[in-house]
């Protein structure tokens, strides 16, 4: 089978979504399928290349690299990009045979659906984050475009992370709409745990008698990372905080550090590779997820799989998850929850969590829908 994947977020991006798309493509090729990924051009990336037997084509950018993808200007250019991409695909895909087309980005679902109808092949849509997950912060235009997308832009099969979004799409679309689980890169998590250098990492960021907390994710408004600094300020001096990630809220995070005078207890690492991020989480006592909104937060499941205690706001699919090391509460109650929880970490990998939420499960469901 030859699968065409359309996504705005892919290798070499280091976001959780990009890692998930990358792992899905790897699994599909390992199972004998051909995978071609069409994704926007990023600075310093080639127009086309083969990586791990995956064909990657990057015709042109989707938005200005200086602006976040969710900004109003970027949203407008991403919509224009989708139209340009559909036209480009008419030329580029001529003479190429595909057995199915899969879209993993909101602006590209209609492109995949139209291409599928045009070629008489199955089209699949994966809906992760969408504006209705936090409608009170979204413009009426974005919500209207989302509803239009749900009504007319979905593929034959639609996969969602959150029950509420599944129900919203099912009300508006005749497509087959299913919940889908699986987000973890099994190989990377096992490797990070097996090659862990816990003593070295902990000596870098905390004294032997201190507790090490970690936040990992893009420094964006949705992730609410400045709140993690507020939480640290409410905790005793025996806690240290490491912040991994970059983004438009870096200054806001630094302002929170300055305001609370917590320069000695907070380390900002910037963006790290996925492997280094996993190693830091593996060595930590607690992982904080203070987000305003999430669909299926990769980092929370990575923390649980690595044996870390996770403190998160009740967002997305996390409200459906029962796990003894997952503590859900408003971010204002994090400090109380942290001090009440047992942070005695098991050094064993949580195999049950790893298997239940692995990308293999995700790939099985997507590929199974195509093969059926």
Automatic annotation (TrEMBL):
Gene Ontology MF terms in the entry: glycosyltransferase activity
InterPro entries: Glyco_trans_1 (IPR001296), Glyco_trans_4-like_N (IPR028098), Glycosyltransferase_grp1 (IPR050194)
SUPFAM superfamilies, sorted: UDP-Glycosyltransferase/glycogen phosphorylase
Pfam families for this protein: Glyco_trans_4_4 (PF13579), Glycos_transf_1 (PF00534)
Source superkingdom: Archaea
Residue intervals of the Glycosyl transferase family domain: 198-344
Domain Glycosyltransferase subfamily 4-like N-terminal: residue ranges: 22-172
Protein name as it appears in the record: Glycosyltransferase family 4 protein
Source organism (scientific name): Natrinema zhouii
């Amino acid at each position: 089978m030859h699968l065409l994947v359309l996504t705005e977020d892919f290798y070499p991006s280091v976001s959780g979504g990009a890692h998930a798309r990358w792992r899905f493509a790897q699994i599909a090729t390992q199972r004998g399928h051909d995978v071609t990924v069409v994704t926007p051009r990023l600075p310093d990336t080639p127009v086309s290349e083969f990586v791990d037997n995956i064909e990657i084509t990057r015709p042109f950018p989707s938005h200005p690299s200086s602006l976040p993808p969710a900004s109003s200007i970027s949203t407008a250019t991403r919509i224009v990009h989708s139209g340009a991409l559909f036209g480009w695909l008419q030329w580029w895909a001529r003479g190429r045979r595909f057995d199915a087309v899969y879209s993993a980005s909101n602006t590209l679902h209609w492109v995949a659906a139209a291409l599928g109808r045009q070629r008489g092949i199955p089209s699949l849509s994966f809906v992760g984050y969408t504006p209705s997950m936090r409608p009170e912060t979204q413009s009426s235009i974005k919500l209207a475009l989302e509803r239009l997308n749900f009504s007319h832009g979905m593929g034959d099969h639609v996969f969602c992370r959150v029950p509420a979004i599944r129900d919203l799409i099912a009300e508006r679309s005749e497509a087959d709409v299913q919940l889908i689980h699986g987000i973890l890169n099994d190989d990377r998590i096992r490797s990070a745990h097996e090659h862990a250098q816990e003593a070295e990492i902990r000596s870098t960021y905390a004294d032997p008698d201190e507790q090490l907390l970690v936040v990992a994710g893009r420094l964006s408004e949705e992730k609410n990372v400045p709140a993690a600094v507020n939480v640290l300020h409410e905790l005793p001096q025996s806690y240290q905080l490491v912040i991994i990630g970059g983004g438009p809220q870096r200054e806001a995070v630094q302002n929170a550090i300055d305001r609370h005078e917590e320069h000695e207890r907070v380390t900002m690492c910037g963006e790290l590779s996925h492997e280094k991020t996993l190693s830091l989480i593996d060595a930590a006592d607690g992982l904080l997820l203070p987000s305003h909104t999430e669909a299926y937060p990769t980092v929370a499941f990575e923390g649980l799989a690595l044996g870390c205690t996770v403190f998160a706001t009740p967002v997305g699919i996390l409200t459906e998850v029962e796990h003894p090391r997952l503590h859900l509460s408003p971010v204002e109650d994090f400090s109380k929850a942290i001090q009440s929880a047992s942070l005695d970490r098991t050094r064993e990998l949580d195999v049950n969590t790893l298997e239940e939420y692995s990308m293999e499960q995700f790939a099985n469901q997507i590929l199974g829908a195509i093969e059926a």
